Amino acid sequence: MRARPAGGSPRARRLRAPLLVSLWILFAIEALGGLVIFFARLAWGITPGATLHVACGVALTLVYLVYQIRHWLRVQPPRARLDYTLGFVAAGAMIAANGFGLMLGAIWWRAQAHGASAAPIHYPPRLSALHNISSLLVLTFVLAHLGAVLSRDRRAGPNQE
Amino acid sequence: MHIPPFSIFSAISEILVTAGVLYIIRRNWTGRTFSLAIFLAVALFEALVNVLYMAHRSAQAATGAEPIAPGLRLGFALHGMLSLLAYLVFVILGVLAYQDQRSGRFWFKDRPGVTWTFVVVWLISVISGEVIFAVRYLKP
């Protein structure tokens, strides 16, 4: 039996890395905030927590870029495996969600810079829809990617990375 | 009232997607494997056609440009949230079931409680969408 390195398996240590923990925290704030905005805007025409959503969205984009580059350098080259496929879909969706989100954030920023009035900000419906659907795909495929990796680890045994 | 053609397409295709979801669960439940291609086709079609269309209609409704009764707006929002949740859970459970069936285990069959809860949530999500379609476009 192989001895476990101090601090647990390499996977466990990577899951506790400050960069990934920061990414998860920002991701959780954005996901919850986004769902609240989606619901409240549709039901009552209000966007609670929009400032926090935009600020954390910018931070999430920056942290994600660093994380994704490091992650890719570690897991490359691509392999024909379900966890890789799900990871690619998640990464594509993340880039789209952040890109469309930053465009919506720019509209929000311009509205604030020109003096916010009582009238709600007009976000182009197509851009909102693309941001919403890509955000849903991020949530879905990031969790599915993580599920596939952890379930693969469990099948492979305790010493698998 | 004019019914957007894509709303009709989406209302019908949602039923076909539901048939796909139930087929995947039934295969797994009866100890037979489902193909990754069918699972991915159902998951991607649902996301890139039906959920995207729902997101677009929600975004249009949120602008307030179309007159929509407050109760129906709340219905849109609840249906939208439930659809997103059901879709997310479907993909995650499908991935877990696909991984498990490769090692001879059948995720849905082994977890009847979770499976039935998911099926009920999925059906509520689909039926609520069809009801909203009927109330919005077919109610005189």
Tell me what you see in this structure.
The complex is a heterodimer of chains A (161) and B (140). With 161 residues, chain A is mostly helical. Helices cover 76% and strands 0% of the residues of chain A. Chain A contains 5 helices and no strands. Chain B starts with a helix and ends with a helix. Chain B has 5 helices and no strands. Helix content of chain B is 82%, strand content 0%. Chain B has helices at 5-29, 36-62, 70-101, 107-110, 112-138. In chain B, helix 1 packs parallel to helix 3 (70-101), helix 2 packs antiparallel against helix 3 and helix 3 runs antiparallel to helix 5. The A-B interface holds A 35, 38-39, 41-45, 82, 86, 120, 122-123, 125-126, 128-130, 132-133, 136-137, 139-141, 143-144, 147-148, 151-152, 155 and B 36, 47-48, 51-52, 55-56, 58-64, 73-74, 76-77, 80-81, 84, 87-88, 91-92, 95-96, 98-100, 103.
Keywords summarizing the entry:
heterodimer, A: mainly alpha, B: 140 residues, mainly alpha
Low-confidence stretches of chain B: none
Supply Rg of chain B: 17 Å
Q: Give the chain pair forming the largest contact, with residue counts.
A: A-B, 32 and 31 residues
Uncertain parts of chain A: none
State the secondary-structure class of chain A. Answer: mainly alpha
The general outline of chain B is: elongated
Give me the number of helical elements of chain A.
5
Number of helices of chain B: 5
Strand content of chain A: under 5%
Radius of gyration of chain A: 19 Å
* Helicity level of chain A: over 70%
The helix/strand order of chain A is HHHHH
Report the count of strand segments of chain A. 0
Q: What's the helix-strand series of chain B? A: HHHHH
Average pLDDT of chain B, to the nearest integer?
A: 88
Query: What is the mean pLDDT of chain A?
Result: 87
